[in-house]
């Protein structure tokens, strides 16, 4: 027969399912319910099975360490504190570990920021056979706040339910539907937000974003799917999310730079990443020199704002190139003149890069009589094995724009891979279908790892407690 659990008036506990490896709890048999420190409490998910998301400071006097937690809501009840104040609190149930033992405990969520103890363990949370010795403390093995200053805090972080926004004006596209489907399969709440229905409050102290008359909640992550036609406003919304501290898969600066083909080629050139010889000019008098820089016909003439192969023209002769350039200039359109890589034979390689690695690579082949290999232009896709150099080039290109998710298009030329484009909102249908890989699953693997709590640096006196009451 094992000895009953012995508790002092204060004990170290761990709440592993909330990502809290060490907390000091005040044991109070005079209190019926147990309470956990929480702030910025928000509910999310379906009304039939609501969840709650909250932040908490596990270490007194360490406001730089805020851990995001989430759990299913099991109740909402009225609780009267020791000072006589009554409030409605959300109730969750989670595992609590103390020494070698663990058991489920119900916790009410409330702001205990002014308290020395981030958790209060009431009599309902104490096993029936436990012995409480109110004159003793730390009867169970002691833990340490140093648990939050090592990489272990990331390694043991739970796979908690996340609240994620997908910025998209097209909820019925394959990519958006797959992001919602895969996220919900993992227990996350995925909300599709129409970018153009968002509006912002520009305030130095409290910037925020509104949607259909309501202030948007705090999200764990935002996945931008900003269409080319709304790039300026879409990136402004993404920038606002960055301003309020939300983690964004692809940042506003990366989206902006990748969308502007001139800017994008300048970024690639600065990083010494191979690409077709490209020229740009403003003056009509520079047409001949512009073409001479790029080389002999055939040449590619490409609008800076072109997408999905539209606005890209193959000029097979010098005369045709002059005509296309003259026409574009007549429209006052901004365009590039680019080398045509003949040896590519109407094929390119689309690499899907996530978090600094190539998750899938497909070969896109142009339809008969077409030079553009885009799937939207009738091209076909098939899986392809890429070389080490091609893989490194794709990763470097995505990194140059600081994109967490990118579609990097490469041409195979006689002198190595050349980057055609870096897409910040790559379509996932062709890549998933051709490669047979669950790219949305890989994306959520990356997001889940990224939003885990980050370790903090040690500092002298970190174990010192404040003198506030329990």
TrEMBL record:
Output the GO biological process annotations, alphabetical, semicolon-separated: SOS response; translation
- Annotated keywords: ATP-binding, Ligase, Magnesium, Manganese, Metal-binding, Nucleotide-binding, Protein biosynthesis, Ribonucleoprotein, Ribosomal protein
ATP-binding: present as a keyword of the record? yes
| InterPro entries assigned | Asp_endopeptidase, ATP-grasp, ATP-grasp_RimK-type, ATP_grasp_subdomain_1, Peptidase_aspartic_dom_sf, Rimk_N, Rp_bS6_RimK/Lys_biosynth_LsyX
What are the start and end residues of every segment in region (Disordered)?
A: 451-470
Family per similarity comment = In the C-terminal section; belongs to the RimK family.
This chain belongs to the protein called Probable alpha-L-glutamate ligase
The encoding gene is rimK
